[in-house]
Design goal:
The protein is α/β, with parallel strands linked by helices. It has one domain: Glycerate kinase, MOFRL-like N-terminal domain (Rossmann fold, 3-Layer(aba) Sandwich). Helices cover 43% and strands 21% of the residues. A five-stranded parallel sheet has the order 6-5-4-7-8, with helices on both faces. A three-stranded antiparallel sheet has the order 1-2-3. Helix 2 runs parallel beside helix 3. The longest helix has 19 residues. 36% of the residues are buried.
């Protein structure tokens, strides 16, 4: 095989790998609308039986994920907010993009987490919530439980980072001191149907 052919093959492999992990492409693969129906992964939803659609999310890939959801469901989305890292914004029409601190949570993350909770409040059993989660989402939406301050949550995060805790260990601790993690967001959205992408 000649060098030019090897280079071309390597480039094709690289491009395919990048497309495979592109957040917008991942949404398009798992959220498909057609014939009055919406496929969400393996689930199939009759859009005629859906009231409001809300979109919330958190993570560094939140903005491109939100833009892809708008391409698919733009006319049906009635409310939405996605919390992402500072500098990771891109234009969206209906879903508001909220910037916050990562990896150490900040006041903007508290406000973003509250905006997420506000967007899912008051929905009914015919309503649908799409939750877009990507890397960094836990730090971006701190929402500490009553009795825990942001400063305490920041100290915990810094201590965990300093001692080399992995993300699984960090998230295990975070969910116990959060109003949004560990199933709390789904509880806040009830009785609406919740799907996570």
């Amino acid at each position: 095989m000649r060098v030019a052919e090897l280079r071309q093959s390597a480039r094709a492999i690289f491009d395919a790998a990048v497309r495979a992990v592109d957040p917008a492409e991942a949404i398009r693969r798992h959220l498909v609308r057609g014939g009055g129906r919406l496929s969400i992964g393996r689930e199939d939803v009759d859009l005629a039986r859906v009231g409001q659609i809300a979109v919330v999310g958190m993570g560094k890939a939140g903005a491109p994920m939100a833009a892809a959801v708008e391409e698919i469901l733009g006319d049906r989305i009635v409310r939405g907010v996605v919390v992402t890292k500072y500098g990771h914004v891109q234009p969206t029409r209906t879903i508001r993009i909220h910037e916050a601190g990562h990896p150490v949570p900040d006041d903007a993350g508290i406000a973003g987490a509250q905006a997420v909770l506000d967007r899912v409040a008051g929905l009914g059993p015919d309503d649908l919530v799409l939750v877009l989660i990507s890397g960094g989402g836990s730090a971006l939406t701190p929402a500490p439980v009553e009795g825990i301050s942001l400063a305490e949550k920041q100290s915990l995060t810094k201590a965990l980072l300093a001692c080399g805790a992995d993300i699984r260990e960090m998230n295990t601790l975070r969910k116990h001191i959060s109003r949004i993690k560990g199933g709390q967001l789904a509880r806040a959205a009830a009785p609406a149907r919740v799907f996570t992408l």
